[in-house]
């Protein structure tokens, strides 16, 4: 029998849904899954028809983090461990650096590197049954790499609460912490996420790419430098055809026609 693909891709009106497809391991991030996810993100970045990315999980969970069974089976081989964490870091950075917005669609558990995936995404929609944790401290392996994304998305004390306790938090708590945007009933999660993704996909792809890149860059800068940087970004953005088309359409009370230029 042919093995099921580790990652599924579905395209719908500019929205690309990538589904982690290792349900038997709660979509544990094996080295193989991380490698194909890295490849898929690179392909999407170069695909002009792809406007928004949704990352989801097959089966009962979104993602339970790194595959601990694989780690043990590899006897914690240093070369394997180095490659595993290097590829994982590349994937998380690829999500942030992708020229298209990325939405995490979360159900079940999102733990350890699974929570890192959620924190790395630009937006996150969660079902009412979703639970989140960075539980590495409970097994003697502190969630140091998930900490990078987590600490950049939630308050420091909230991040430390999750990292030091290892406890599961429910969806309302995750929303209060700033880890997710919206919570919906499980039966509505897919449709709600897709509807929002389509709304974003209808915008100018050039404008989305400019805005996403500038958002993360300015967040790293001191206030005065952030204003100087974004002033230059806006001036350059204004040279684009889509910016002038959008302004003209607004003033003329018509729908804009985006070209991505």
UniProtKB/TrEMBL annotation:
Please report which protein family the annotation says this sequence is part of: Belongs to the enoyl-CoA hydratase/isomerase family.
Purpose? May play a role in fatty acid biosynthesis and insulin sensitivity.
**Range of residues in the leader sequence:** none
The UniProt keyword set, sorted, is: Fatty acid metabolism, Lipid metabolism, Transit peptide
The protein depicted here goes by the name Enoyl-CoA hydratase domain-containing protein 3, mitochondrial
State the coiled-coil residue ranges: none
Q: Which GO terms describe its biological process?
A: fatty acid metabolic process
Q: Which InterPro entries match?
A: ClpP/crotonase-like_dom_sf, Enoyl-CoA_hydra/iso, Enoyl-CoA_hydra_C, Mitochondrial_ECH-domain
Instruction: List the molecular function annotations (GO) for this entry.
Output: hydro-lyase activity
Q: What is the species listed in this Swiss-Prot or TrEMBL entry?
A: Rhodoblastus sphagnicola
């Amino acid at each position: 029998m042919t093995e099921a693909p580790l990652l599924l891709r579905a395209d719908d009106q500019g929205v690309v849904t990538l589904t982690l497809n290792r349900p038997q391991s709660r979509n544990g991030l094996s080295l193989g899954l991380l490698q194909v996810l890295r490849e898929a993100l690179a392909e999407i970045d170069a695909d002009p028809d792809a406007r928004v990315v949704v990352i989801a999980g097959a089966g009962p969970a979104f993602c339970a983090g790194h595959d601990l069974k694989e780690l043990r089976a590899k006897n914690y081989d240093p070369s394997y461990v180095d490659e595993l964490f290097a590829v994982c870091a590349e994937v998380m950075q690829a999500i942030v650096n992708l020229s298209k917005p990325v939405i995490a669609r979360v159900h079940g558990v999102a733990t350890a590197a699974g929570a890192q995936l959620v924190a790395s995404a630009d937006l996150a929609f969660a079902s009412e049954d979703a639970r989140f944790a960075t539980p590495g401290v409970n097994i003697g392996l502190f969630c140091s790499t998930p900490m990078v994304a987590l600490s950049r998305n939630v308050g420091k004390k909230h991040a430390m609460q999750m990292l030091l306790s290892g406890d599961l938090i429910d969806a309302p708590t995750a929303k209060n912490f700033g880890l997710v945007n919206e919570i919906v009933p499980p039966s509505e999660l897919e449709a709600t996420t897709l509807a929002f993704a389509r709304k974003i996909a209808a915008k100018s792809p050039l404008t989305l790419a400019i805005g996403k890149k500038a958002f993360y860059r300015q967040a790293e800068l001191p206030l005065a430098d952030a204003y100087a940087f974004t002033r230059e970004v806006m001036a350059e953005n204004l040279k684009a055809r889509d910016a002038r088309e959008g302004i003209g359409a607004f003033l003329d009370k018509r729908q804009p026609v985006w070209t991505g230029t």
